[in-house]
Amino acid sequence: ELRLTPTSKTFKEWKDPSSPLVLDFYFFNWTNPEEIYNVDFKPKLSEVGPYSFKEYFDKVNVTWNKNNTISFKRRRVWYFDPEKSKGTLDDVITTLNPVALSAAYTMRHNSYYMKLSLELTNGFTRQEITVSRTVEEFLYTGYSNELLTLAMKLPQTSNRKLPGDKFAWFYQRNGSSEYEGTFNMGTGAEDISVLGRLREWNYKNKTDFYSDQCGMINGSDGAFYSPGQVRSEPLELYSAEFCKTLKFEYLEDTDLDGILGFRYIGGKLLLDSGELDPDNWCNCNGECVPPGVFNISSCRYGAPAFVSYPHFLYADCSYLQQVEGLQPNESRHRSHIVIEPKTGIPMDVAVRFQINLLLQPHEFVSIYRDAPRIFFPMIWFEETFRLSSENSNNLKELVLLPQKGLYFSIGLTGLGLALVAIAMFKRFTRDSDGRRFQSQKSVELTET
Hints:
Layout: H1 9-15, E1 21-30, E2 45-64, E3 69-80, E4 92-96, H2 98-106, H3 112-124, E5 130-134, H4 135-141, H5 146-152, E6 182-186, E7 198-201, E8 235-239, E9 244-256, E10 259-265, E11 293-295, E12 305-308, H6 317-321, H7 330-333, E13 336-340, E14 345-359, E15 374-386, H8 389-447
Antiparallel strand pairs: 1-2, 1-15, 2-3, 3-6, 4-5, 6-7, 8-9, 9-10, 10-13, 11-12, 12-14, 13-14, 14-15
Membrane topology: Multi-pass membrane protein
Pfam families: CD36 (PF01130)
Family: Belongs to the CD36 family.
């Protein structure tokens, strides 16, 4: 039974998955920051990691709705796995100062006096172009920045809202159910084809972060996909991290533990902003850039955040030419999702993305006045999952059940036909014996 009901096995596994995911983080350590104002400067980057975590997640605030949908929030808890990590959480990383850079980017269209106040505040708080912190601070515990502390004291509005009093890429998210928002999806109670399909996110079927179709809430939250997937249609995954639906392209059929799966990949079109496909124009989000990178700044509190595949895989060559130390590798950096098409259950998943900050000149901020324009790699992550042997066997039984039912039906039909044939044969032979007996009896009477 695939449908979600309060008593179904599907609901139990969906709400509290038995197997954790693996979440790996990689940082780019900046080794030549002192050269930033040199002519023809290129940052030299050294990848460090992985810093590996076991990720457990469950669904909370679950509400069953009368329209055959279910609303819920997701809670994720990460546990550091030192055995699978290369390094410790105390490792120190040097990179761009994301707080100062974000402040300059968000103020770039403001009035002269607002820009002047930022420049004075930068001087007062001694902002620098770089920052060095531990992996733990960069990931989730966060670190204080006086510029951010002062900004938090200003009135917060819907158009100018800060994520917290400290900076970390995933600040206040470990163990929280509030960050990703509220999801609403179909249960499949009346129509199995809508099982797992999102209808709303934060009570809307379209976000305010992207225009036109790029803001529509479609696809799955990743737990499972609608049953009956076909090769000709993309696989849609909604990412709360990027506030948009990501479309994965069908690549090939594959076999995992004796089960047929459809393999989908994150291709070039997923990160296109209209150059490869004009329909993707709305991914520009105010600033069109060469293909392979798209703008998520509206989703990230106005920060100059741009997402790509790790090491700029599939991206325009101009991105790689801006930096040193990156080596894109398709087998290592490509995202893929393998699902069983009849049920929509994921069997093998590897989702990989890189966060870049746009470094560019800002005339009104002295530390950025002579800065080059570079899409600066900061961090990349991969979230992986593979169906356990036990769940794989359960899935195999689920997939083969209709086939077994068909064989059973055929067997019953065959048995029924055989019984009919035997009965007819017996009747035929009985009638033949009777006719023979009658014939013999007639002959005897004639002879007498």
